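Help!! Second protein's tokens look totally different from the first
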Amino acid sequence: MLLTVAQIPSSVVDFVEVEEAELLLAQQTVLLVVRDYNDILLSLPVQFADIFRIHLKHLDVMITKGLKTVKFNAPNVITFCTKARQMCSDVMKLVTDFKETHKKIVETIIMSLTRIPLIFIDTRHSYRLDKFAQTQGLWRSKMKLKMTSISQDLQDLLRNAFTPFKDDTDPTIKVYWDEYLKLIDSMILEALHLSVKRSLTDLMYALVGDKKAELSLL
């Protein structure tokens, strides 16, 4: 014979309601851990994934062990979830900071290199050969100083980006970091190619003119 609510002692009803509320809270908290972890994976670009492999591995071990051993009705489930979410938050901050640094490298370093004029020509003047050589020598010295400054800025950015990984004992992190440096090197090389191409184009226009301007002697 089924019991009606009226036949169930109020103390039992209160106990069940409390248990149900606690289980619901535990379930929601665990789902937040899953969400935080997935957010890290979704926000991490593929080309940076290997660099964070060690951090993700530590996070995987902690979360997997917890989900296997901690029960929803265990009193320490909230404690576990709080700790797991804090670890997720720490890793997410590392990922966010790294992405911001990479963006800064692209926007302030790489783009600056593409816009550096390697040749200076004042189209309002005609140059003798010796005067032209002297002008370009002075200009190259000026651009060399600018490139040196850009290089120092790049080193500072990369040094800061590597700080979270410098204490990792796994030797593979150096391999992954070297791969990232190769990516930066290739971007710098491409930027310098564009700078040379643009400068040679400017020189060609100064020598022979273009369709939008009258021919003028250099």
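Here's the second one for comparison:
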Amino acid sequence: MEIGIKILNDIICRFSKRYPLINLDVILTNDLIDIVKEGYDVAIRGGALKDSNLICRKIMSTKLHLCASPDYLAKHGVPGHPDELADHTLISFPYPSPWALRLSRGDESVDLQAQVKFRTNSLDLVLKGAWKGLGIGVLPSSVCSTDVKAGRLVVLLENWRAFDIGLYALFQDRKTPKKVDLFLDFLARELADIEQTFI
């Protein structure tokens, strides 16, 4: 839902303005809705997808970052290696499982070992917790880029890479109605432009 609030709402409004004859029924929720049963044309979902009979089209990818406020880092120090995160507190979104994150650099990979202060299904809460110095936030570029560029957050362990998070459009049939094709193409173009602004 928060990806809708952060990114998709403006795109949907621009689409509606460009195609005023297409009626939209937009539902923002973190719940997995059966779009076939509920009669929706498209679902937009982020993260790891479960198997389904739906057609899947990747429309955006965002990197995952470890971010902390300058105040937090002044008090607790800046980790130079993933092993040092054991001495830090993390704030996480439960992805892809309640807590699993591997960082890689070349041939080396490390499973993250740290105290998780809290888990939440709200990326905004992870962001706010990191701002307030509660710990190191695990955040996608789509959520943290503005705050990193403004200096409110610092990206840690930049030479290490976590997995990317995909944003996907799911729909029922390869022969989609023209309005769905227009929407998906518009969405993909707009998201490609936005993706270029991410850290």
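Reply: Different proteins will give different token patterns, so don't panic. The first helix runs from residue 2 to 18.
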